[in-house]
């Protein structure tokens, strides 16, 4: 229950919906509880009428007596209808307030969660899988919403109905009441177990459904691989296996739900039989009237659903509580990279100087992915980082925009400790092209503009020209408005990379980082992009990660990284003269070029 206490502030926020809502719940319950009392009076009128009518049946007043009796019954009928009408109106208002409030809370909660998730740093995304985060944002919030709205509504109504009905019944006849409510606890317990089972099985169903969709999603997005390896039949078989399992679980759930109704009806039936049996004897003794029996039967019927609801509500609360604690886990987690007390808010811009001072980094305790990285760059210089896959190049460059903070040492940007620069200022100064290209399902224009929403058309165009993308765009059906990404036109890996480069260029950053951002373009295009960058470089600092010597040979400083250590450093001319990784790489790539030239 404790995690649900976090919701109290929401109840308070929407108190002007909850308070009237709960009052309506009480009102609706009271009106429906008055119906049995009227029925009792109507029924009790029947023997009175019979007694009065019988001796006078032959006389002249018989007809008017008959008429007035029916008028009386009609009146009772009208009262019952109006009471039900009032109860219905209140029940409508109760839903309109409480369910609406629960939707508001769901909305608030979801927005808060999303804001929070967006604010989390990279480490959070390394620790939590996307699927897990999405589940929390969807089904966990839904569980909590169900608790906020329906659970509270049912519980209030149930409480009012059960307490009032039992009190009234007790006043009429304690003995009959005790007998009549014997099946009730069984009902509550039975419903609790059934609800538990229903929830457990729907969870299993849900899980199976996700694994089914994952399977389909993989098979469809990997359709080229599936076809190339002629694995269609295999894929179809795994689908029907998963699908079979889904059907089985669906039937399991249907069986529980089907069993629920008969049990429910059986228990109500038992109550009714007991009332008629015991009540009939009491009526014969003159302890109660026949009308009381009718009243009791309606009370018992009125109580069954609320009692059953309590069983449901208990499992709802349990689930909501578990969901809320999962949500709270995210909401309570603090991003490890934030503006904090060390931030110097007077800094509003930084230049392109970069200095790493004995920087260490580890993803997990103990294993250093970067060890004692040390270098210094002036604004307008070019740094190149080369090294094998897994050497730590991507990790190193991601420390510059503070996607993560070093576990040891300090990164200085523009001469200041990066941790003292407001994050927005730091990132505004940096154009970062990550190793994995990501394009949104948007037009090319919007994808480039993502780097700077306020960029003018000519800036976007210039960025596209510098990324050697402009001519390609002009060949597309709708030019800059062409949709790319999963739902748009298919663009090549190289075009995607260049879109991603244009996105970084449009920011006109002080520091431009290419994390292997030229891997999918040919050497000729690479040369043109680098030449464009060079001619417009000015004070802009370039950091280029590449495995191609051709891309890095003009750098002011080249770092050769191996297993997180800088094993060689210098300019191209220095490094080709040294025996080592760089010279090996250089010779190998020269050989490749010569072979290509001959062929
Ligand atoms: N998210 C991560 N969690 C744990 N280890 C990681 C993660 N990302 C990278 N690593 C490890 O850090 C090392 C350096 O990776 P990376 O910086 O991507 O190298 P490079 O870019 O040079 O290929 C590798 O050993 C890799 O396995
Ligand atoms: Mg990398």
What would you note in describing this structure?
The protein has 599 residues and is of the alpha/beta class. The longest helix is centred in the N-terminal third of the chain and has 58 residues, at 62-119. The chain has three domains: 2-332, ABC transporter transmembrane region fold (Up-down Bundle); 338-429 and 509-525 and 540-599, Rossmann fold, CATH 3.40.50.300; 437-508, P-loop containing nucleotide triphosphate hydrolases (Rossmann fold), CATH 3.40.50.300. It is built from 20 helices and ten strands. It starts with 7 loop residues before the first helix and ends with a helix. Helix content is 65%, strand content 9%. The strands form two sheets. A six-stranded mixed beta sheet has the order 6-7-8-3-9-10. A four-stranded antiparallel beta sheet has the order 2-1-4-5, with no helix packed on it. Adenosine-5'-diphosphate binds at residues 126, 363, 369, 387, 389-395. Magnesium ion binds at residues 393-394, 435, 516.
Key features?
single chain; 599 residues; alpha/beta; ABC transporter transmembrane region fold; Rossmann fold; 3 domains; six-stranded mixed sheet; four-stranded antiparallel sheet; 20 helices; 10 strands; 65% helix; binds adenosine-5'-diphosphate; binds magnesium ion
Radius of gyration: 38 Å
The topology string of helices and strands comes to HHHHHHHHHHEEEHEEHEHHHHEHEHEEHH
Biggest sheet: strands side by side, in what order? 6-7-8-3-9-10
User: What ions, cofactors and ligands are bound?
Assistant: adenosine-5'-diphosphate, magnesium ion
